[in-house]
């Protein structure tokens, strides 16, 4: 992607039936395009001076046909989202009117915007940096209020400050090393190289910590996968329905009823959750059921959290223990089900949750356990730098590993200069085409 002098246009609102749709136009000729597309009331526009808001009749200059009426909003550069002249045409929603108004704008000289091109222009014009741009994407994709709050923090630049501090430290160390190249070794203070390597080690550790926080914040953007696992008839489908508070999975006393996974989204304490009911795990001669078991194990292996279900029977309470599976990387929560069938008081046990899907006993405690587990997994939910940014931080940390191993001043200076240049892209000091493409291609057209 690259900056362009073209004037671009796209529908900025989601498709489908609705009261209002917005067609966004940005570029040097945005006001000129609007003047060709909009029929204003007499005296509304004079001598090329546009008001901020004006009622308008939308008109296609090629077909000479009115297409809709609505409102035109004018934003003069640089006080706009993109930093350019911007016009937003508000028309009626639905499938037809927005398309017709967009076609009119294209007929008037605008071109159709690429994915994320409006936000890309905002980035290129210094209206936001890389982390803030990823915050915009996170806000659009947010599934819960908590995710939206974290995205807003990123848009406000709360994570940008940390990344800029890392960049400025890299620039400082690079400047010190560059200056050292201009003097003789005898003029350098004793322990100069070791002192700079210590500074680089601290910078590397901070980079890795920031990358880790960014990875964990991914849960808020994309959701956590929680898999219900256990033997047939242990109560997985019943618990699945109880957590969702609706009947989604078929509940039957016949073992092997659930053969394929069932997924449904829910919100637990602001965490977006993809809850997955799976086939009961057992040995069986049935090939179809075996395939379901294999898929269930694969899903558990790749989950954020596995709820390991076991039926609470009279013989178990006295020998309860916190026994988790060691396979896979998922966090495990042991869940004993069907507590309503026990006459004796259900014992408390650390790390274990007792539930009854029939009565609702323990469901809130299980949700609290899930939320607590996600808090541990996602240590920094307010960090919203995405995969590409996290990869860049890890990549830079790797370069510092290489630099720290060197005792040669010239090699050290070259490596640190490279580190500073790569970090510059994350704070908007410079940019590369591949970095822009990797981010803005994930946006929708119109954003």
Q: Secondary-structure element sequence?
A: EEHEEEEHEHHHHHHEHEEHEEEHHHH
CATH topology of the largest domain: Rossmann fold
Number of domains: 3
Radius of gyration: 29 Å
State the low-pLDDT regions, or none: 315-326, 380-385
Explain the overall architecture.
- This protein is of the alpha/beta class and 447 residues long.
- The chain folds into 3 domains: 8-126, Gyrase A, domain 2 (2-Layer Sandwich); 133-217 and 387-427, tRNA modification GTPase MnmE domain 2 (Four Helix Bundle (Hemerythrin (Met), subunit A), Up-down Bundle), CATH 1.20.120; 228-377, 3-Layer(aba) Sandwich (Rossmann fold).
- It contains 14 helices and 13 strands.
- It has a 7-stranded mixed sheet with strand order 3-4-5-6-2-1-7.
- The chain is flat and about 80 Å long.
- The relative contact order is 0.13.
Topology:
Blueprint: E1 8-11, E2 20-26, H1 30-37, E3 38-40, E4 53-60, E5 65-75, E6 86-92, H2 97-107, E7 111-112, H3 117-124, H4 130-141, H5 145-155, H6 158-181, H7 192-216, H8 218-222, E8 224-229, H9 236-244, E9 262-268, E10 271-277, H10 287-301, E11 305-311, E12 331-337, E13 352-354, H11 363-377, H12 387-404, H13 409-426, H14 433-440
Parallel strand pairs: 1-7, 8-10, 8-11, 11-12, 12-13
Antiparallel strand pairs: 1-2, 2-6, 3-4, 4-5, 5-6, 9-10
Helix pairs in contact: 1-2, 4-5, 6-7, 6-13, 7-12, 12-13
């Amino acid at each position: 992607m690259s900056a362009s002098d073209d004037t671009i246009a796209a529908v900025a609102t989601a498709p489908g039936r609705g009261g209002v749709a917005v067609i966004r136009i940005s570029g040097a000729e945005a006001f000129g395009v609007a003047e060709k597309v909009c029929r204003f009331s007499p005296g509304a526009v004079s001598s090329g001076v546009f008001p901020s808001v004006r009622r308008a009749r939308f008109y296609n200059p090629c077909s000479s046909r009115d297409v809709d009426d609505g409102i035109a909003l004018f934003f003069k550069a640089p006080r706009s989202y993109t930093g350019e002249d911007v016009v937003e045409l508000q028309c009626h929603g639905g499938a037809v009117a927005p398309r017709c108004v967009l076609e009119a704008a294209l007929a008037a000289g605008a071109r159709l915007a690429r994915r994320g091109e409006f936000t890309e222009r905002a980035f290129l014009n210094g209206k936001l940096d890389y982390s803030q741009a990823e915050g915009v994407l996170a806000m659009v994709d947010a599934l819960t209020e908590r995710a939206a709050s974290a995205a807003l923090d990123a848009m406000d630049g709360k994570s940008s400050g940390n990344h800029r501090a890392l960049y400025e430290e890299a620039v400082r160390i690079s400047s010190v090393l560059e200056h050292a190249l201009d003097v003789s070794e005898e003029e350098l203070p004793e322990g100069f190289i070791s002192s700079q390597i210590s500074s680089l080690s601290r910078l590397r550790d901070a980079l890795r910590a920031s990358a880790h926080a960014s990875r964990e914040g991914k849960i808020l953007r994309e959701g956590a996968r929680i898999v219900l696992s256990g033997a047939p008839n242990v109560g997985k489908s019943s618990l699945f329905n109880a957590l969702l508070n609706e009947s989604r999975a078929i509940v039957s006393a016949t073992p092997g009823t659930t053969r394929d996974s069932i997924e449904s989204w829910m919100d637990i304490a602001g965490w977006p959750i993809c809850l997955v009911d799976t086939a009961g795990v057992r040995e069986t001669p049935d090939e179809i059921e075996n395939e379901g078991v294999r898929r269930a194990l694969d899903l558990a292996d790749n989950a954020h959290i596995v709820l390991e279900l076991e039926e609470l029977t009279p013989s178990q309470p006295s020998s309860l223990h916190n026994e988790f599976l060691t396979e896979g990387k998922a966090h495990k929560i042991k869940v004993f089900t069907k507590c309503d069938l026990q006459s004796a008081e259900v014992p408390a046990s650390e790390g274990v949750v007792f539930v009854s899907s029939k009565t609702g006993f323990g469901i809130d405690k299980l949700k609290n356990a899930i939320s607590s587990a996600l808090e541990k997994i996602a240590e920094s939910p307010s960090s919203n730098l995405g995969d590409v940014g996290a990869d860049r931080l890890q990549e830079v940390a790797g370069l510092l590993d290489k630099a720290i191993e060197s005792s040669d001043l010239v090699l050290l200076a070259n490596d640190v200069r490279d580190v500073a240049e790569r970090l510059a892209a994350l704070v908007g000091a410079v940019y590369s085409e591949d970095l822009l493409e990797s981010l803005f291609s994930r946006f929708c057209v119109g954003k």
